[in-house]
Amino acid sequence: MSRPSLADCEATTPEADLLFYEVSKYLKSDDIALLKNAYVFSRGAHAGQFRKTGEPYITHPVAVAGILSELHLDAVTLSAALLHDVVEDTGVSKQEISDRFGASVAELVDGVSKLDRIEFQTKADMQAENFRKMLLAMAQDVRVMLIKLADRLHNMRTLGVMRPEKQRRIAKETLEIYAPIAHRLGLENIYHELQELGFCFSYPTRYKVLVKASKAARGNRREVVGKILEAIKQRLRDVGLDAVVTGREKHLYSIYKKMVEKQLSFSNVLDIYGFRVVVKDVSSCYVALGALHGLYRPIPGKFKDYIAIPKANGYQSLHSTLLGPYGLPIEIQIRTRDMHHIAETGVASHWLYKSSDAEVDDLHLKTNQWMKGLLETLSDSFDSLEFLEHIKVDLFPGEIYVFTPQGKILALPRGATAVDFAYAVHTDVGNCCVAARINGENAPLRTRLKSGDRVEIVTAPAAKPNPAWLTYVATGRARSSIRHFLRTIQYDESVKLGERLLNQALSSFGLDPETVSSSQWEKLVRDIGVKSKDELLADIALGKQLAAVIAKRLIMPGESVSDHPGKSSITILGTEGMAVKFAKCCYPIPGDGIVGLIKKDRGLVIHTQDCLAVAKNHKNADSQLDVVWGRDINRSFPVGIFMVVVNKSGVLARVTTEIAKADSNIDDIALENDKDYATMRFVLQTRDRRHLARILRRLKHIEEVVKLGRIRHQ
Fold first, then answer.
1. CB-based burial of residue 551 (10 Å sphere; 0-12 exposed, 13-18 middle, 19+ buried)?
2. Do 625 and 512 share a structural domain?
3. pTM higher than 0.85
4. Which family is it part of (predicted)?
5. 523 with 644, same domain?
6. What radius of gyration do the chain's Cα atoms show?
7. CA angle 146, 183, 263 (to 5 degrees)
8. Are residues 196 and 261 in the same domain?
9. Segment 151-187, tens digit of pLDDT
């Protein structure tokens, strides 16, 4: 493709003319020349291409650059916006972009481009991998996400030409991912428009109904809102404040969310209007707050000071809800001019203000911390879909603010627990946490935190993450760190178990495992197509490969092998970790006759010999292993017991007391009552069959016990 001349730029579209006019207000002539070059190149690359709307394709990149010019972004970002689709949709390479417009523009274009040249198993995998790459690029340069958000915003504005099912899919993705990212980066105008458009195309009928109801309410309340606005202005003038006061209608999507969350009809959502007060400095914010609290009575619990404690995206403002005339709730936001600018443009303010601006520096520090967290989540995640799951959790802004023992403030999402706090402090603190002290009192790790809590985490060097934590943690960072740790531990344990299973198979063929040479292993690993010997051993433990088959393939031609392999058993020590699982259908304990079943992706599962699962597996003899208990096992195992008792007051207390006296803990309990009798089912911690027998003997001596025994199958 020959490079177009600058003279070709004369044939611009009205939209391009408007773009160049707007950027001339703040860009230098050299920057505008770069932008015009990018426009000419993009127009040539997209020549002959049209959008679904019927417009020439060049109108889309021009519109994206126009959205970004409203944020006063630099010429490099605007040029990348004009070129953001040429690598994906035309024959232009990243290197050609770099040669013509510089490495910075090329990197931004590449960060936004999709991975359409990579094969994925499903559409979900492709979307997740695209998003993963985009966020990785964003962590290096946030302008990648600014371009992507502007790209998504223009696509949403023109989404009406798409098929309804595609509209809903894109709108859902916008509401779940892109709008929260815009909010996280402080781009409030883009955030709200993405939400409104996402709502419109996700629920078109509901949107139309709310638009109609909102217009009717606006007419009914116009006079009241006008009086409130004038009263606020007069009150601020009375206290000598020079303030800009504006009234605004709450966005339809936020009204809809409130209706859904609180099960309200539109007529019951009273606070659909808000007022914003912009003053010159911080002290004036608090003076204005006091003045307005004197004008209208504040509603308890509805005040938030985001100036003293800014949001994670750097947003600062005072929020208060007041009870206005006729019982109408009024939302008030009070902020300085600089705070207002950052609230509107977020991280984009970096390219308008200089880095010496302390407020913007603080904003970017917080943004960089969030991006650093993204990279940690990215490195801990097993695949793109899992990464996307974690990141969706963290996209929504922090709702609570808690304190470390040193007085540092941490922002966490609503519903966060002490475990989330521990991982927010440091991954190592989370991995080793064993208890928490909240406001000076001991508390379980699953305790949900509240704003203002002072949290101290108790750690132990030998402690490890508990899989049960995944059921209640609220942050993506905690979830991905726990999964990463558990996956690493399980892999190491699986390698060890796989080696034991393979050695058993080799021995059953009469071959000493020590005689297998490294060349035999290298050939086998290469033939099977795994990365390493350890990966193959882990696959054996997880049931993806059969030990007997691998053993036969390790045997060299001409090796003396027994035609009828002997039986040898795997010894179960109880210390195998997550590589060996004990079935919950029969709860095997030391002293029971046991059988091992290899389940694909679950590994070795231990059952009692009389378990129904073993009987059902008789056709798959290759997946069944002989296993025996080792000696001197020093751990507890769960076991199920049932009891039928006379339904009298206090009987449960007597039963639990006897269980405690027998040196056992209760993991779970279920009760079924009728008029005369009650059936109790317990899961207890026991060391072996003898320990269980002692527990049952103590329980037999309780007068109300009619029948008891071990639960064999469930």
1. buried
2. yes
3. no
4. Belongs to the relA/spoT family.
5. no
6. 33
7. 145
8. no
9. 999 999 999 999 999 999 899 888 888 888 888 777 8
For residue 355, tell me if it sits in a domain.
no
Specify the CATH number for the domain of residue 648. 3.30.70.260
Range of the domain at 303: 207-346
Domain end position, chosen among 177, 204, 231:
204
H-type alpha helices, 452-555: 476-508, 518-528, 533-541, 547-554
Number of domain units in the chain: 5
Place of tokens 């519109």: 63
Q: Is residue 356 part of a domain?
A: no
**Do 393 and 475 meet the contact criterion of CB atoms below 8 Å apart?**
yes
| pLDDT tens digits for range 262-296 | 787 776 776 667 899 999 999 999 999 999 999 99
Span 132-150, pLDDT tens digits: 666 666 666 778 888 989 9
- Specify the pairing of strand 329-336 against strand 455-459: unpaired
More confident residue, 298 or 326: 298
**Residue 352 located in a structural domain:** no
Task: Pick the closest to residue 682 from 662, 705, 706, 708 (CA basis).
Answer: 708
Strands 580-582 and 603-608: parallel
What is the four-CA torsion angle of 588, 592, 596, 601, rounded to 10 degrees? 10
Catalytic residues: 88-89
- Which two tokens mark 676? 């005369």
322 strand-pairing partners: 298, 330
Query: Could you tell me whether strands 409-412 and 329-336 are parallel, antiparallel, or unpaired per DSSP bridges?
Result: unpaired
Query: Which H/E stretch holds residue 278?
Result: strand 273-279
Buried b (16+ CB within 10 A) or exposed e, 572-588: bebebbbbbebbebbbb
Question: Could you tell me how many residues make up the chain?
Answer: 714
Check whether residue 173 and residue 216 sit in a common domain. no
Task: Identify whether residues 418 and 546 lie together within a single domain.
Answer: no
Burial level of 288, CB count in 10 A (0-12/13-18/19+)? Answer: buried
CA 15 to chain centre: 39
Q: Which helix (H) or strand (E) holds 305?
A: strand 297-305
Query: What secondary structure does DSSP assign to 388-445, as a single string?
Result: HHHHHHHHSPP-EEEE-TT--EEEE-TT-BHHHHHHHH-HHHHHTEEEEEETTEEE-T
pLDDT of residue 271: 62
* More confidently predicted of 385 and 229: 229
